[in-house]
Description:
By secondary structure, the protein is of the alpha+beta class. It has 2 domains: about 5-125, N-terminal domain of MutM-like DNA repair proteins; about 140-265, Helicase, Ruva Protein, domain 3. The protein is about 25% helix and about 20% strand. It has helices at about 5-20, 40-45, 125-130, 140-150, 155-160, 170-180, 195-215, and strands at about 25-30, 50-55, 60-65, 65-70, 80-85, 90-100, 100-105, 115-120, 255-260, 260-265. The strands form 3 sheets. A 4-stranded antiparallel beta sheet has the order 1-6-7-5. The longest helix is centred in the last third of the chain and has 20 residues, at about 195-215. The mean pLDDT is about 95. The chain binds a DNA duplex through helix 6.
Amino acid sequence: xxxxxxxxxxxxxxxxxxxxxxxxxxxxxxxxxxxxxxxxxxxxxxxxxxxxxxxxxxxxxxxxxxxxxxxxxxxxxxxxxxxxxxxxxxxxxxxxxxxxxxxxxxxxxxxxxxxxxxxxxxxxxxxxxxxxxxxxxxxxxxxxxxxxxxxxxxxxxxxxxxxxxxxxxxxxxxxxxxxxxxxxxxxxxxxxxxxxxxxxxxxxxxxxxxxxxxxxxxxxxxxxxxxxxxxxxxxxxxxxxxxxxxxxxxxxxxxxxxxxxxxxxxxxxxx
DNA sequence: CCGGACGCCTGTCGGC
DNA sequence: TGCCGACAGGCGTCCG
Length: 271
């Protein structure tokens, strides 16, 4: 799915269309997502006005006076703003009909996404409790990565994809950030120097910010609120380029499996 | 505590 | 052409 840049692109895209709008009707056509959609979601949200759309990790939080709808896009989810009269397709599971003749539509072919309801104004949920820092915040630093990684034997790629360490870094951007930092994805996390973690924290932040600026990466399913894809795919240096020449040295990029995920790197530039 | 594997689900693509 | 396995932006859970 959607990694952090795609979720942030979605947040920014839907915000102006939903903030200040009242929810007139909630249509849940499919309750079976990763977890069941709350049976009382419609009862909770109908009549409420959306006051803000926030993001924590890869979750979107739609604020209302009574509580928040917490939504995850999973691997194949997307949110679109459409005319209230538009007909839903096969994987369009949930609609929020708004008071200005438009609707917010949640589509998710693989149904790995989820929707929860948080009562009141607290962000209290088991799925949020154990999350690490936001990579675009000040508390995310190379020092933090260095401290947390001591004694860890897992590959550094797995380490930076661990949501207890830092949130929002999925498979695409983990590959990209490691390439930009010149770090081999299989290197043990606990054996990397503080200086190299400074560089890695920097490239993680850089690649996420640049991807947001391009509206995220679309491989297959991701579209923004208007139905347009993200354009960062053209900027990817290694992901999806196994066998191609490394931009830095011309060597063929290698492709392996790490933790069940495709991993691409340059055996010469990344050590 | 840590690390690795397994499912959840649908769609697509490559190989035979 | 058709079938079958592998794989796809995630992540909670289970097991050693």
